[in-house]
Amino acid sequence: MADQPDAPLTRIQQKNRDLILEGALTAFSLHGFRGATVDQIAEAAGLSKPNVLYYFATKDDIHKTLLTTLLDMWLAPMIRIDPNGEPLDEVLAYVSAKLDMSQRFPRESRLFAYEILQGAPHLSEILGGSLRGLVDTAAAILQGWMDQGRLAPVDPHHLIFSIWALTQHYADFDVQVRAVLGPGHDPFIEARPFIGDLYRKVLAV
């Protein structure tokens, strides 16, 4: 099975792959890539080690598949930016979607951040290929709106980087944010109007 990644999956096979990836997310989040073992992934998935290795030949294969799946999910809101939409509304919707994802998927955000901090050994080709192309497309849409005078002129690539950094900060540095704010605060609820106002003031014309 591990040698035939393009073979169609049955419903049970897809379910088991999903269980393995969810178990891997748990194991990698707790122990990091180097510390996590296939045994730990199997235990978290509720499957036997041989069953895990039936779907993925190595821990490295599991990690790369998980990261690629997470990256596709993480980039989906950018793909939905509508070049025919109202520019400021489209940007603010993208910001809101990214903040929603940080709130719903903090483990995924931290796992991706850890991979980047390690030099992206499992994602280097994707980062310089499909990711770069997607970001360039979004940046071109933003630049077009700016050229038309519909958004304030800023560097579109760095605008995108700032959205990533600001929204994912609340997932990646959750412990720090909550410690500073103290009890009784919901960082995501409180951050949402501030972040929206920030980009509205930066980009409105």
Automatic annotation (TrEMBL):
Keywords: DNA-binding. The keyword DNA-binding applies. Signal peptide: none annotated. Residues 14-74 form the HTH tetR-type domain. One of its GO terms (biological process) is negative regulation of DNA-templated transcription. Pfam families: TetR_C_3, TetR_N. Residues 37-56 bind DNA. One of its GO terms (molecular function) is transcription cis-regulatory region binding. This is TetR family transcriptional regulator. It comes from Paracoccus sediminis. The lineage of its organism: Bacteria, Pseudomonadati, Pseudomonadota, Alphaproteobacteria, Rhodobacterales.
